[in-house]
Design brief:
Layout lengths: L1 H28 L3 H7 L23 H7 L3 H24 L5 H28 L3 H28 L4 H7 L1
Helix pairs in contact: 2-4, 3-6, 4-5, 4-6, 5-6
């Protein structure tokens, strides 16, 4: 009897998760450009890490400087959230603009996942060790990937949706 209750509870939990996931996917697919821009977190910007943020990949800071400029976990969390939003922006551009390179969109999705994994790793390390060398290196790696992703997102928008670039640059 107890086993049947657990099985039923597990099936209901999985079904509820799938319903929630489907609703979330539907909401993501019906977003407007303005809604995506509003999701970007402006309280920290990677402009402080690179002289050519949004236009070129790479950082102009050491891991120590990057950690200070990103304000530690605050900047990491902003990168985590903005990476997902930039991937959604790539999907939006692919859906609403003709001829978007699918490889570039997949690269942006891959970048977003790598950034999020790096950020989570750095935040877990930070939780256990405060700001040790491993934390700073992972934060630097995440910031480097983040500036690259921002540059590729700008490139995608310039090539396929030039009218969206000024809003993106202002929001970042």
């Amino acid at each position: 009897m107890v086993l049947e209750v657990f099985q039923l509870a597990a099936v209901l939990a999985v079904a509820a998760y799938f319903v929630h996931w489907r609703k979330s996917a539907k909401a993501r697919n019906s977003q407007t450009w303005e809604a995506l821009l509003a999701k970007l977190r402006p309280e920290w910007s990677a402009r402080e890490l690179s002289d050519h943020f949004l236009w070129q990949e790479g950082l102009s800071a050491t891991p120590e400087e990057a950690w200070k400029r990103m304000e530690g976990p605050k900047g990491l969390w902003v990168m985590y959230q903005n990476a997902r939003v930039m991937a959604e922006m790539a999907d939006y551009a692919a859906k609403h603009c003709g001829g978007v390179d699918p490889l570039l969109v997949e690269t942006l999705h891959s970048d977003a996942m790598q950034i999020r994994v790096c950020v989570i790793t750095a935040l877990v390390q930070y939780g256990f060790r405060q700001a040790g060398d491993g934390v700073r290196v992972n934060a630097f790696r995440a910031a480097s990937m983040y500036t690259g992703m921002a540059a590729r997102t700008t490139q995608l928008l310039q090539a396929y949706a030039a009218a969206m670039v000024p809003d993106f640059v202002a929001a970042m």
